[in-house]
Prior knowledge:
Elements: E1 4-18, E2 28-39, E3 44-55, E4 62-74, H1 81-110, E5 127-130, E6 133-136
Antiparallel strand pairs: 1-4, 2-3, 2-6, 3-4, 5-6
Amino acid sequence: MKDLELLSYDVLALDFYNNMEEDTEYGLEISINYSLNYAEEDKMLVAEAEIEIEEEEHDGKFRLAFTSAALFSYIRDNLDDEMRKQYHRQSVELINPLWNETLAKFADVADIPAIDLGEPDIDDAEVVIEDGTEKLN
């Protein structure tokens, strides 16, 4: 049962440069740093993400990065570590289409090929809980 509700989503910052030659094929490396911060008294959580996409060679020819924040509400009263990991997975599943929409809109405006993050695949071992904050390793 999913008991998270996405209340808002915002792109806070965007950084882009493209010095690639036209009609050049190149591989991309995608990095996502994602964390959840809880306000348990309000049954809310804030998701913060930093997504960085660079060409594989890291020679400074292409970079697209953005920072986003999302606000969720939840219904559970007591959150144990297992429930926090479940919320982590659920929140990524809910926000991933918005990340892809952000990338698609930007690609259209910047006249670059579309970039899709694919479906999220998060293993519990990747989620680290520190002082009420979850982070994805």
